[in-house]
Specification:
By secondary structure, this protein is mainly β. It has two helices and twelve strands; from the N terminus they run E-E-E-E-E-E-E-E-E-H-E-E-E-H. The protein is 13% helix and 33% strand.
């Protein structure tokens, strides 16, 4: 069995401070339990420094959120992508998906988000991969999905929804490393003749 590739592990981790992305700093000032002041430092019984409340002692853990997404595949083998209408990555191509809600499974979240962003009803059929984006504090799960209903249409969060033949994919317009890696991995599985690592451009860091 071969070793799993970890493309994110090859990139430098810029933009972090005290165990969290810099943009998260304003959310790490006060305790969510009692409102007391948070301090960052050693915690008894833990190997990592953590955010601890000076009033009640509650530990605030900084953990990534889960993003549930799909690569809908048409009967002709085309890949459905969306052109994003909202930040981040406005105007770039990505797979449909979004943040998982607390009252749904990952598959349910992926199906819901795909319907909301493309108008398509899908059934996940396999896992393309699991891709971290530490700077955004997310982990992206990508499923392949069969299209079982609905109608492909532009939604409020999309500028365009389009099915691409593999030879016509907008590689240079794909907006996120996680999307690029997922599309590469899927194409690699169905078109091993293509050198997908030469297609598209990775962002230099997180």
């Amino acid at each position: 069995m071969g070793r799993l590739d970890d493309p994110a592990g090859r990139l430098p981790m810029h933009g972090f401070d005290r165990g969290a992305p810099e943009w998260m700093a304003p959310m790490l000032r006060n305790c969510a339990r009692c409102g007391g002041r948070l301090v960052y430092g050693p915690v008894a019984g833990d190997e990592r420094d953590r955010y601890r409340c000076t009033e009640c002692g509650h530990i605030t853990y900084v953990n990534p959120r889960l993003v549930a997404t799909t690569l809908p595949i048409t009967d002709d083998g085309e890949i459905v992508l969306i052109r994003r209408a909202i930040p981040p990555g406005v105007g770039t191509w990505a797979q449909p998906g979004g943040f998982l809600e607390a009252d749904e499974t990952v598959i349910q979240g992926a199906v819901r988000e795909t319907l909301e962003e493309t108008g398509l009803e899908v059934e996940p059929t396999g896992i393309v991969g699991i891709y971290p984006q530490p700077r955004a504090s997310v982990v992206v799960v990508v499923y392949t999905a069969a299209i079982v209903g609905g109608r492909m249409e532009v939604k409020p969060e999309t500028l365009d929804v389009r099915a691409f033949a593999i030879d016509e994919l907008p590689w240079d317009g794909i907006g996120f490393n996680t999307s690029l890696w997922a599309v590469r991995d899927y194409v690699r599985s169905v078109r091993p003749d293509l050198d997908v690592d030469r297609l598209g451009t990775e962002q230099g860091d997180f």
